[in-house]
């Protein structure tokens, strides 16, 4: 190839070029963002709509269903699910993975705008939000100290949260735990009624009475004054003195009239007010704390948890380092009793994982070097080949930076996988240079590289083309494999360029001596092995076929799972108490669990979060953790498996089963488990119309599944109706007084939950001023009925008691209604204990087949099982497509249809090793190991390409008989086959051990090693035998066909014409040209300068002679135009 010729002739230029690549690679390495996973965008959009006071049934019919129908028509919608709970509708739209979420959210907004008029007027504007479960906190920090919870939260918010949010790359910081200051206006219902006031009057007076308002400017000759009205509260006691309204005391007759039925009530003319009613007259003002919504503890001590999230494109490691540096600075300014503890640090996992993968790549490179040194037994040439590894890696790093690919365990895993393959092309080039007969070193290097240039290009192309179908892989597999595929493709391209450029340059710097005597031992041993199998070829093929059938049976029986399981020595306990349990009740249960945890020596660290206290309303509305729920984060000693600790805990916490407490243990078995924490590994969706029927089916199914030993934490998400107090509006009476549902609901909401009409400002801080009934009043149903609401009757303003326009009664009501695909749904979820998912699904399906369901009801398997099925189906398609592409590339390379087909027959041979190694190491088949199968389709054919290509060469060029050429090719090609295969296998070996962060890629390495080892042994044996039989069978039909269609007479006429043409050409040539032809038959090549010197002619004359021979098709020019161009005799020329 011309590029090799150029590089060998200009070694300094070539070396400078690669030094530039090294420099760029080192710089790019420092600038590449480091993260645990590639940027993953979950294709889901959430629509949140609030409608205060509405029941779950009303939310479902009035809001959820119309929105579901509207968004269901959006392009590429995969699944629509919803949750309808009191006052809130949450509709979740899941799309195909290839959808642009930004464009999809715009289309969802358009669809919702079309149905806005159908929604209740009192409902708030629907909020469209993008949802991404992979956006987990970068760091969780616990603020602990011997101070009050109020002061602790204040320090966490003012001194830490606000400072962290200023850091580059930090997106948000969420607080959990502690107490917040609040100014509470506790209204007494009796006094309020006596003053003929509504609680909304109190709220409205606070909103109007706490203002600073500009009034314009006053200009004077020398000054201009700003006029401001100052009415904001300066002190808390001042709030109690705020007037609510002016009121004239009613007479006894007027009081009686006010309590009569409106139809009989006389019109009363109120005189002008004689006294003011202040807030202190109807309520007490307290400087207190907000009602607690969350509790946080660290190692049993009260704390405030700060969950730090990064910006979408920020570097996790860089952000974490900035946070740690800032925390060290903050510690200096914080009170001495305050301490900061980092409970979770994602950058720690990233650094460990990347370090382990880098170590695996380094160890693989060293092992590959030792194999090459063992075969070559020459330090310089072995070093030259190994030099290609760091060169290729730095080139790949540069390409990754240009392509905006981050350093993560996926992309770096691709680099580690490619380490063993990086030297393959260099090994082939070196072998070709060694066997080239030329003595002059540069010619030997150039010609040796040119001879195999097209071959290594073809083999590289076959390996690369197996990754092209990755663009069709959907689901989480497609998201992960894109970066892996890119890093491997970049590695292979860099390997090809390196083998054709810098490797020949470095080899040409040393003299090459013959090494035939060093190869004899390997060749002799292999010749004996191959001769044995070839001699008994009739038995060899059936035996190997039986082995393949057995391996296929084993492979089909191998268990399957979506993702590899890892042990990060952390787990989470999700605690679910009975719905309606207050925060204090949940805390008591959690304290009992904490006590058990602290009694175990295997536990290193425990932090808990009970409830949630999100500051953003939309996050609070969709917050899944209620007051009766808690999360306990546990760190385990690294020397002990996490599942063993969980087993111990299950036994010790059995006493909680009698207290209707559900515990869900989430071990970090999969590296994406935290992102998919909202779905258990196994989820059964029970669908139908009636919730009670769904509950009965769910309980029956749960009872049967509990008998399976590998299932635990079975949880039916049916939440039993909780006790509630209903205020059912009497609409005809309400309309009589010009009252609407919204006003009535607002009155109740302010009375019980409280309203925050304004804020109290002090020293630059703002605190809520909350208006609500005092506790004894809001807990008394009778007193709630006496609440006054301002209405109108006959154009007169009157006060209407709540009991007049609403029936207040106790009842039970559903907490929430779930829907999937526009059907009511209850889910039964379960965790899996040490059992592959495929086996679990198989057993569950057997149980489902035995259950008779009522008409219109069905049970579907979801969760990880559904995602696994989707990913495996798309991977199967990618595997088939990659095999087709490999065949097409080989067919183009060989210009044959049957020879590539022969090579593809050897692909199943790799399955023997794959099945055996998966069975031995007991690793289930997952999407990562399935990628190994796809990779094998592009790797193992290279051995077949080398063999078939050399057999063809011996038969075509050397005219060696079929059987002899097969034996000779098998013996001579075994050395490069062994070198390339063993370097790849040993390069993958450290990755396959699954140490630290390499656990994710372990299954891929194991599958590739198993397939390569079996194909390395079977391909040089089986492929030549298959070639022999096919060639023998094809020898007859084509020849007979040929003789039948071409008469002998025509052959003779054609021969005469050819001889006449040959005579004519010879007459046309001069003596110099005739002698040149004879010279080229013996010496292969000649340059223009050599031809001119041989006959003592000028360069222009030599050019004319050579041009004529070239035009006649006798010779052809090679190399670039100029002094280095040479000429050879054309192969088809008979002169």
Summarize the structure.
The protein has 1135 residues and is an alpha+beta fold. Helices cover 54% and strands 20% of the residues.
Task: Walk me through what this model shows.
With 1135 residues, the chain is an alpha+beta fold. Among the domains are: 1-31 and 378-512, Multidrug efflux transporter AcrB transmembrane fold (Up-down Bundle), CATH 1.20.1640.10; 44-131, Multidrug efflux transporter AcrB pore domain (Alpha-Beta Plaits, 2-Layer Sandwich); 519-557 and 896-1045, Multidrug efflux transporter AcrB transmembrane fold, CATH 1.20.1640.10; 1062-1129, Winged helix-like DNA-binding domain superfamily/Winged helix DNA-binding domain (Arc Repressor Mutant, subunit A, Orthogonal Bundle). It is built from 42 helices and 33 strands. The strands form 8 sheets. Strands 1, 2, 3, 4, 20, 21, 28, 29 and 30 form a 9-stranded antiparallel β-sheet that branches. β28 and β29 form a beta hairpin. α2 (11-31) crosses α13 (379-402), α17 runs parallel beside α31 and α31 (864-894) packs across α32 (898-905). The longest helix has 36 residues, at 999-1034. It starts with a helix and ends in a 6-residue tail after the last strand. The model is unreliable at 261-273, 514-521, 674-678 and 1040-1058 (pLDDT under 50).
């Amino acid at each position: 190839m011309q590029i090799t010729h150029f590089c060998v002739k200009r070694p300094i230029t070539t070396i400078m070029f690669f030094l530039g690549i090294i420099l760029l690679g080192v710089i790019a390495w420092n600038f590449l963002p480091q993260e645990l996973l590639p940027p993953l965008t979950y294709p889901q959009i959430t629509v949140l709509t609030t409608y205060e006071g509405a029941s779950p049934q009303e939310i479902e019919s009035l809001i959820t269903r119309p929105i579901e129908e509207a968004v269901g028509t959006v392009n590429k919608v995969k699944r629509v699910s919803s949750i309808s709970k009191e006052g809130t509708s949450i509709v979740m739209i899941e799309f195909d993975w290839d959808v642009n979420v930004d464009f999809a959210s715009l289309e969802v907004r358009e669809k919702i705008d079309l149905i806005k008029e159908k929604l209740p007027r009192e409902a708030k504007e629907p909020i469209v939000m993008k949802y991404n479960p992979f956006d987990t906190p970068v760091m969780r920090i616990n603020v602990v100290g011997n101070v009050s919870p109020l002061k602790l939260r204040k320090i966490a918010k003012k001194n830490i949260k606000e400072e962290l949010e200023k850091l580059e790359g930090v997106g948000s910081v969420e607080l959990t735990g502690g107490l917040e200051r609040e100014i509470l206006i506790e209204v007494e219902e009796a006094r309020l009624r006596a003053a003929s006031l509504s609680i909304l009057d109190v709220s409205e007076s606070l909103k109007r009475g706490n203002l600073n308002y500009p009034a314009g400017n006053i200009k004077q000759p020398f000054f201009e004054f700003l006029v401001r009205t100052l009415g904001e509260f300066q002190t808390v006691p001042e709030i109690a003195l705020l007037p609510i309204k002016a009121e004239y005391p009613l007479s006894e007759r007027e009081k009686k009239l006010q309590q009569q039925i409106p139809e009989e009530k006389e019109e009363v003319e109120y005189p002008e007010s004689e006294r003011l009613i202040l807030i202190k007259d109807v309520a007490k003002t307290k400087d207190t704390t907000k009602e607690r919504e969350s509790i946080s503890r660290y190692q049993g001590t009260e704390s405030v948890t700060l969950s730090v999230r990064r910006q979408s494109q920020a570097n996790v490691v860089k952000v974490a380092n900035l946070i740690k540096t800032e925390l060290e600075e903050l510690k200096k300014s914080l009170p001495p009793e305050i301490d900061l503890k980092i409970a979770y640090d994602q950058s720690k996992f990233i650094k460990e994982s990347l370090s382990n993968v880098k170590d695996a790549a380094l160890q693989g490179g060293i092992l590959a070097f030792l194999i090459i040194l063992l075969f070559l037994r020459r330090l310089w040439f072995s070093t030259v080949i190994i030099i290609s590894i760091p060169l290729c890696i730095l080139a790949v790093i540069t390409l990754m930076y240009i392509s905006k690919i981050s350093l993560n365990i996926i992309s770096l895993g691709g680099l580690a996988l490619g380490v063993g393959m990086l030297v393959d092309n260099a090994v082939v080039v070196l072998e070709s240079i060694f066997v080239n007969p030329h003595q002059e070193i540069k010619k030997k290097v150039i010609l040796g590289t040119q001879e195999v240039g097209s071959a290594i290009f073809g083999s590289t192309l076959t390996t690369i083309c197996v990754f092209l179908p990755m663009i069709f892989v959907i689901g989480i597999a497609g998201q992960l494999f894109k970066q892996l595929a890119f890093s491997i493709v970049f590695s292979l391209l860099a390997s090809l360029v390196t083998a054709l450029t810098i490797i020949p340059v470095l080899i040409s710097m040393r003299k090459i001596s013959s090494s035939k005597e060093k190869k004899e031992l390997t060749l002799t041993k292999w010749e004996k092995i191959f001769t044995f199998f070839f001699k008994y070829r009739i038995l060899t093929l059936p035996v190997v076929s039986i082995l393949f059938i057995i391996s296929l049976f084993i492979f089909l029986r191998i268990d399957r799972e979506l993702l590899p399981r890892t042990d990060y020595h952390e787990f989470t306990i999700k605690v679910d108490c009975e719905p309606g349990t207050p925060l204090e009740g949940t805390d008591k249960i959690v304290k009992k669990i904490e006590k058990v945890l602290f009694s175990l020596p295997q536990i290193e660290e425990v932090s808990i979060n009970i409830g949630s206290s999100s500051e953003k309303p939309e996050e609070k509305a969709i917050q899944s953790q209620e007051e009766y729920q808690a999360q306990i984060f546990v760190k385990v000693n690294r020397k002990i498996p996490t599942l063993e600790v969980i087993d111990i805990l299950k036994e010790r916490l059995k006493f909680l089963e009698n207290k209707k407490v559900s515990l869900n243990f989430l071990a970090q078995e999969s590296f994406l488990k935290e992102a998919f924490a909202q779905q258990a590994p196994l989820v059964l969706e029970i669908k139908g119309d009636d919730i009670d029927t769904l509950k009965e089916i769910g309980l029956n199914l749960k009872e049967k599944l509990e008998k399976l030993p590998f299932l635990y934490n079975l949880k039916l998400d049916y939440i039993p109706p909780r006790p509630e107090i209903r205020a059912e509006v009497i609409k005809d009476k309400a309309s009589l007084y010009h009252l609407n549902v919204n006003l009535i609901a607002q009155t109740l909401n302010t009375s019980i939950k409280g309203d925050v009409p304004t804020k109290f400002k002090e020293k630059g801080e703002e605190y809520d001023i909350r208006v609500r009934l005092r506790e004894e009043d809001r807990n008394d149903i009778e007193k709630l009925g006496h609440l006054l609401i301002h209405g109108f009757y006959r154009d007169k303003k009157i006060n209407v008691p709540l009991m007049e326009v609403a029936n207040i009664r106790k009842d039970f009501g559903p907490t929430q209604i779930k829907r999937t695909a526009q059907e009511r749904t209850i889910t039964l979820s379960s965790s899996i204990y040490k059992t592959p998912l495929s086996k679990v699904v198989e057993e569950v399906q057997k149980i489902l087949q035995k259950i008779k369901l009522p008409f219109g009801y069905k049970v579907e398997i979801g969760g990880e099982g559904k995602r696994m099925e989707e990913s495996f189906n798309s991977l199967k398609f990618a595997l088939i497509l990659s095999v087709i592409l490999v065949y097409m590339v080989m067919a183009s390379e060989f210009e044959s249809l049957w020879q590539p087909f022969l090579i593809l027959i050897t692909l199943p041979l790799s399955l023997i090793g794959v099945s055996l190694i998966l069975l031995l190491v007991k690793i289930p088949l997952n999407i990562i190991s399935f990628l190994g199968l796809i990779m094998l389709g592009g790797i193992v054919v290279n051995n077949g390409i080398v063999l078939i290509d050399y057999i063809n060469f011996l038969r075509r060029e050397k005219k060696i008989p079929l059987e002899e050429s097969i034996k000779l090719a098998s013996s001579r090609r075994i050395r490069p086959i062994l070198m390339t295969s063993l370097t790849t296998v040993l390069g993958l070996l450290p990755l396959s051990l699954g140490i630290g962060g390499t656990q994710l890629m372990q299954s891929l390495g194991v599958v590739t090693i198993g397939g390569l080892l079996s194909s390395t042994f079977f391909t040089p044996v089986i492929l030549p035998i298959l070639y022999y039989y096919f060639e023998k069978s094809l020898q007859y039909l084509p020849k007979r066909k040929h003789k039948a269609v071409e008469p002998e007479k025509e052959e003779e006429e054609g021969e005469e014409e050819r001889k006449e043409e040959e005579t004519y050409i010879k007459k046309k040539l001069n003596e110099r040209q005739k002698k040149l032809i004879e010279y080229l038959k013996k010496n292969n090549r000649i340059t223009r300068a050599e031809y001119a010197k041989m006959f003592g002619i000028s360069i222009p004359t030599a050019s004319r002679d050579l041009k004529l021979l070239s035009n006649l098709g006798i010779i052809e020019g090679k190399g670039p135009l100029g002094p280095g161009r040479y000429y050879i005799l054309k192969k088809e020329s008979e002169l």
